[in-house]
Amino acid sequence: MLRVAGLRKAFTTPAGDLTVLDGVDLEVGRGEVVALAGRSGSGKTVLLTVVAGWDRPDAGTVQRPGDGRDRGAGAGAATGRPAWDDVALVPQSLGLLDELTVGENIALPGRLDGVGRDDVGALTTRLGLDHLVDRFPDEVSLGERQRVALVRAAALSPRLLIADEPVAHQNQAWAEVVMAVVAELAQRGTGCLIATHDEVALRAADRIVRLRNP
Hints:
This protein is an alpha/beta fold. The protein has 6 helices and 8 strands.
């Protein structure tokens, strides 16, 4: 699902160039849950944004689902970013649209890229969101918004799921439910890459990759 080789990324700061990633090699297989671990500043979020196509590396290669696909006039065609059913992202910011209800946010990928999963409603219920579908994101808790972002990401059973701290706003009980949902996505064939420091998420991973500062 994903192959990263020799990836390097630096940013210009007033004190000079700051290298965040240097020589990163990583693979995520079909149906595998891989956790990125490392202390704050080790580059976990930067690596995820590069893998998602939101940023470009300074060196190295990223091969992900959908690369080279002719998307016609559909979503992602203008930017070259992967389509929702190729790569879905749960960012730390969650990325929900404030003007859409919870239900409309969840339905958005299906509207943009095609028919969604038949069990989205059941997944919404399982994650404790079924009674919130007519509310707006600012009318629900942060933990609930995070679970909305996960349902939206899972809506098209993407080939690759990227999630940045997906249980950061959950108590242990909900964290276990969230990771069970991620594991079930993997069982369907989705490769899952998550950045986390949470023990519940780390225990649920098939493999842990630790980043160290360059």
